[in-house]
Structure formats: C-alpha cells, structure tokens
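Field log, afternoon session.

UNIT: design team B
ACTIVITY: writing a sequence onto a fixed backbone
BACKBONE:
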C-alpha cells in the first residue's frame, strides 16, 4: 500500500510562501499607486492655486500642496514651480501673464516595505524603492 500522509502539508509548505508574497505584493503596489494618485491630486491642487492667485505667492502654493499631501500621509521630497509662456520660454513666476502655463511638480520617494527586500534576495531592483512624481500644468487666469 502507498502512504500519502504528509503530502498536503508538503504542498502547502511549498505553495504558501509564494502565495503570501503575491498577496503582499498586491497590497504594496496598491499602496504605491495610492501615493502616486495623491501626488497627482496634490500637484493639481497646487497648480490651481498658482493660476488663480495674483500676484503669485509660492509660499501659498507650497503650503496647499504640503497640507493636501500630509493629510493623505504622503511625505514631499521636492516641490517645483515653473512658468512658461505660450512659445515655451520660461518666465519668472511673478511675471507670468494671463495665458501663461504654470507647472507644479511634486516628487516623493516610496520604499517597498516587504516586497523590496524579498525580491532583492532574488536579484530584484526594488530594494531602494522608487521615486514617484507628478506634474500638473494649467494656464494662468
């Protein structure tokens, strides 16, 4: 007679780590995607404030973006403001006229908590995390 005792336990021991890694990976990438969406919305909020105020106040735009992102638990690594005329030439933010494009760029670094270290054991490149960013451009009103 053939003995099958312990077969299911061995199969579970082989499959469970892979299934858990996939499940945790789904949660990690969903978290990174949520942070990316927060950066998109934060840049959009900053651009909207930048185009409606006159004269341009970089402190107000900075505080709005940082407030929005901090309320979503996202750390801001860097924040940039750029104003371009219609032909593409860069102008000073305070000198932007109606119709000039004002861009707000927001960047943050995301470290994978579990998936990065595990994948680095197998040669993956997520150990140092990824840089996430977004830029919103609107015309000055």
């Amino acid at each position: 007679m053939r003995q099958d005792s312990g077969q299911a336990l061995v199969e579970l021991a082989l499959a469970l780590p892979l299934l858990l890694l996939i499940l945790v990976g789904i949660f990690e990438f969903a978290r990174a995607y949520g942070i990316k969406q927060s950066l998109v919305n934060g840049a959009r909020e900053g651009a909207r404030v930048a185009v409606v105020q006159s004269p341009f106040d970089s402190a107000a735009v900075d505080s709005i973006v940082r407030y929005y992102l901090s309320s979503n638990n996202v750390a801001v690594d860097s924040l940039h403001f750029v104003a371009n005329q219609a032909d593409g030439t860069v102008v000073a933010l305070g000198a932007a006229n109606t119709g000039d494009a004002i861009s707000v760029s927001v960047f943050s670094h995301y470290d994978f908590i579990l998936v990065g270290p595990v994948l680095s054991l197998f040669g993956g490149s997520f150990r140092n995390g990824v840089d996430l960013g977004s830029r919103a451009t609107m015309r000055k009103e």
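LOG NOTE: Helices lie at 7-52, 58-71, 115-121.
NEXT ACTIVITY: expression trials, pending approval
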